[in-house]
Specification:
The chain is globular. With about 220 residues, it is of the alpha/beta class. The chain is built from eight helices and nine strands. About 30% of the residues are buried. The longest helix has 21 residues.
């Protein structure tokens, strides 16, 4: 078993180090040590992307371990008791709700490869109150278009739009129900201390954001 100590590393370093290690130890178990829940979610996303089973465990105050299992280990592994078991239950429920919502939004009207970047909770320069009204109007107008983006990424203060209390939650949830991949920067959520308030979509990291932008057919930044 290989252990990668990624405690204290800023996003997206834990994901990059885990990915490198997994490429070097094919068929073996890898454990990554991290110090925040956002990193846990990012590593679980990496495991899903690489078709690897992951088991997350809280070891102590701001101490977490994420295990990446080979196929044999995954078949024998059980969901960790306590907090991670509850997390797993919530993920399953969320996935079921998302699947049901997507079925209600057929046919697929997403523009393949199109990414929208939301870097602020307001739109344009000048009066921020006006800017917030403009951003709310933009997100609503987006739901009314005949073609939707494939991905919407929220980062910097834009992360505030996808959390509890946001005036745009209903519109963002509508986009997600239509199959739009809603991603919010985990580092940004941590910075604004709202990591536990994400209400729509999923947490992402700068590595995945960079990949999305590199392969995008078009990128729109309002």
């Amino acid at each position: 078993m290989k252990i990668v100590d990624a405690r204290g590393m800023a996003c997206p370093k834990p994901v990059i180090e885990a990915r490198k290690a997994l490429q070097d130890i094919k068929g073996q178990e890898l454990t990554v040590l991290i110090d925040n829940l956002i990193a846990v979610q990012n590593l679980e996303r990496l495991g899903s992307y690489m078709n690897l089973e992951t088991i997350s465990k809280k070891e102590g105050e701001k101490e977490y371990a994420v295990r990446f299992l080979c196929s044999d280990e995954a078949a024998e592994a059980e969901i960790t008791e306590g907090e991670t078991k509850e997390d797993e239950k919530e993920k399953i429920q969320a996935a079921e709700q998302e699947a049901a919502a997507v079925q209600s939004c057929i046919p697929d009207i997403r523009a393949a490869g199109q990414v929208i970047l939301i870097s602020s909770d307001h739109m344009g320069e000048g009066d921020e109150v006006l800017g917030r009204l403009l951003m709310k109007g933009f997100l609503y107008a987006l739901t009314e278009l005949p073609r939707l983006p494939e991905t919407v990424i929220f980062y910097n203060s834009g992360a505030k739009l996808s959390v509890e209390g946001s005036d745009s939650l209903e519109d963002i949830r509508h986009l997600e129900a239509c199959g739009v991949d809603i991603m919010t920067c985990g580092t940004c959520l941590n910075h604004y201390e709202i990591g536990d308030k994400l209400a729509v979509g999923r947490v992402t990291n700068m590595y995945e954001i960079t990949e999305k932008l590199m392969w995008a057919s078009s990128v729109i930044k309002p």
